Backbone:
């Protein structure tokens, strides 16, 4: 594991870690070594799993569901 165990982070620290890892994702994908990408994948999965464990009933925006995406795709302008 890289970094602090996500279960040991308070909510504010967890959100900050998630924001940072999501912000750096694109650059890591495009320019990181295979090892860096693998470590990034593992850490992101750990952080996201902890967030979901803490917030199993998080609000879901209708547009972020399959149905919502289909409705956006069927809209004519």
Residues:
């Amino acid at each position: 594991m890289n970094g602090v165990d996500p279960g040991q982070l308070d909510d504010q620290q967890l959100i900050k870690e998630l924001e940072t890892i999501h912000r750096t994702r694109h650059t890591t994908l495009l320019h990181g070594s295979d090892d860096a990408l693998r470590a990034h994948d593992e850490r992101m999965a750990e952080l996201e799993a902890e967030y979901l464990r803490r917030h199993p009933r998080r609000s879901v925006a209708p547009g972020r569901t399959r149905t919502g995406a289909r409705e956006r795709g069927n809209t004519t302008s």
